[in-house]
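Q: What structure does this chain adopt?
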Amino acid sequence: MLKRIRESTKLKKAKYAFAQSVNRIESSENLLLFCMPRGGSTWLTEVLAASSNLPVLWEPLHLRYAPEFQNINLGWEQVMSKDGEWAELKEKFEKLFQGKILNDWNCRVSPARSFVWSTKMIVKFCRANGMLLWLTENFSFKHKPVLLLRHPFAVVASQMRHMGFDGVHETISVPQTPHNDFWLFRKICG
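A:
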């Protein structure tokens, strides 16, 4: 049984490696969607995917499943000023927008093979709203990114009902990440 699981894992990794090496994703053609967790992004992503037949790159900054971003100390709610400089982050996003970072998590909606023939994809971000200006300043997109805003009370109510957010709202701390000036300012000025 364990041998079959290892073989299955190797096969999946091979599929992702193949899709990453041959895909023709044009980063400027991608459709980007930004939203808070439980803010309606899944619904909108499903609508866009069904109407466009594009593959979906699912929450690529979820730190539990994105070692490439975790390894450079990206925060869960990372904020970047429009003119902030972070060469490693920019390099990771270049790879991401070209479809060169694929894994079980971010391909959970669209199989790896769907990225092979597509020239663009839908990228669904949760928790990246604070980087939207930085991304639009550092990358060229043919289509304007979508920032989906749901009433904050509805977002928090949905998060409180979802078991993945147990204890999240109990304390707020300043993240120990690069470019955390925004959080320090909020803590001082409250």
